[in-house]
Amino acid sequence: MFWIVLGVLLAVAEIFTTTLFLIMFAAGAFAAAGAAALGAPVALQALVFAVVSALSVAVVRPVIKRHAMPALESGDQPFGVEAIEGSSAMVLEPVDAERGLVKIDGELWTARSYDATRSYAVGERVQVIKVRGATALVWQDEISTPGGLPEGKR
Predict the structure, then answer these.
(1) Cα separation of 149 and 72, whole Å?
(2) Are 152 and 114 in contact (CB under 8 A)?
(3) Which residues form the signal peptide (predicted)?
(4) Which of 22, 38, 68 is the C-terminal boundary of a domain?
(5) SS3 assignment, position 122
(6) Mind listing the pLDDT tens digit for each residue in 121-138?
(7) In a 3-state reduction of DSSP, which class is residue 71?
(8) What SS3 state is found at 80?
(9) Spatial separation of the C-alpha atoms in residues 154 and 137, rounded to whole Å
């Protein structure tokens, strides 16, 4: 019973830390609970806990973290919203800090100017800097406009 309680406590604690560290020890505790259910002595239960926890931290955690990483950080091909950030877009309705519409890869997106002091006219090319919900935050296209990206986005 000790191992099950420990496993549950560690799993609940992981919810608050989101580090993928404590959950590995919870897995070790549940494995030790399985060994206890099979009648293993306490020393073997502790060994099972230690081995499963260590292997989880050393082998499983890096794999999970690599797959949880955004595609741009991991070097994988981005998809979904991540693929849109950095894309070029055509302004279909004037874009300013409060409203606008752009076309990104054939799709219509609501847009706002990344810089609240800037506005873009119909027909201008802009670059998507960030996506917030269903709204693209855009900046002048670095290819077609001198000056390029805003500071910190280069």
Answers:
(1) 18
(2) no
(3) none
(4) 68
(5) coil
(6) 999 999 999 888 889 999
(7) helix
(8) coil
(9) 15
